[in-house]
Amino acid sequence: MRVAPPGTATVPTDTEYIALAEIELCGELIIAASAADGERLSADRIDEVLRVAAGKRTARDGAR
Q1: Residues 6+ apart with CB under 8 A from 28
Q2: CB 3.0-4.6 Å disulfide test: which of 12, 26, 45, 55 passes with 16?
Q3: For residues 21 and 14, what is the distance between their CA atoms, to the nearest angstrom?
Q4: Cα(61)–Cα(48) distance, rounded to whole angstroms?
Q5: Within 10 A of 52 (CB to CB), how many other CB atoms are there?
Q6: 48 or 10: whose pLDDT is higher?
Q7: Residues 6+ apart with CB under 8 A from 20
Q8: Helix or strand run (H / E) with residue 62
Q9: pTM surpassing 0.85?
Q10: What is the pLDDT of residue 64?
């Protein structure tokens, strides 16, 4: 494995930004799941945690 020397600035790539965002969202889901009373999070609660817009949710689910 190659490591950049100390003090060398590196610019994160788009892939790294996406990976970090996905890790953050997974963490938020884990926190929500650990605080939930039931065994599972509902689809609506997952959408709330992931900040899915109502319009996107309706289009995805076929006009609820």
Answers
A1: 49, 50
A2: 12
A3: 11
A4: 15
A5: 14
A6: 48
A7: 12
A8: none
A9: no
A10: 46
